[in-house]
Structures are given as structure tokens and as C-alpha cells.
Amino acid sequence: MPLALLSEWLGHAQLETTMIYAYADTQMKRDAIEKATNNLNPLSKSQSGPSWHNDEALIKRLYGLA
Predict the structure, then answer these.
(1) Which residues of 31-59 are buried (b: 16+ CB within 10 A; e: fewer)?
(2) Contact present, 10 and 16 (Cβ < 8 Å)
(3) Which of 2, 44, 63, 64 is buried most deeply by CB count within 10 Å?
């Protein structure tokens, strides 16, 4: 997301204010990625593939074949 847009959305008068909150160094990014992809994260245990992946009836309806 462009920082200028985020700054406006948050109501900051100065982009520098948004930069204080938006800053993340390399280690912070690594930690966030590790946390998001950790096996203990309940979101990473979701089913493999989208729920409609093997739903032939739904796929046919989406393509206008049913």
C-alpha cells in the first residue's frame, strides 16, 4: 500500500508520522514471516487449496456450463 494513501487514511498530517509506524527492519520482517508460516499458527493449517477446487458443480456454474 502506498504510504501516502496510508497516511491519509490514518489522518496523519505529515508522511513522516506514518513512517514512524510503518518502519520495519529486516529482522522484524523475518520474525513476522516466521510467525506467519510457523506450524503452530492455526492459519497455516488450513486445507490445501481453495474449497471450490474439487467442486465440479460449482466450477460448471461459474463457467456457465450448468
Answers:
(1) eeeeeeeeeeeeeeeeeeeeeeeeeeeee
(2) no
(3) 44
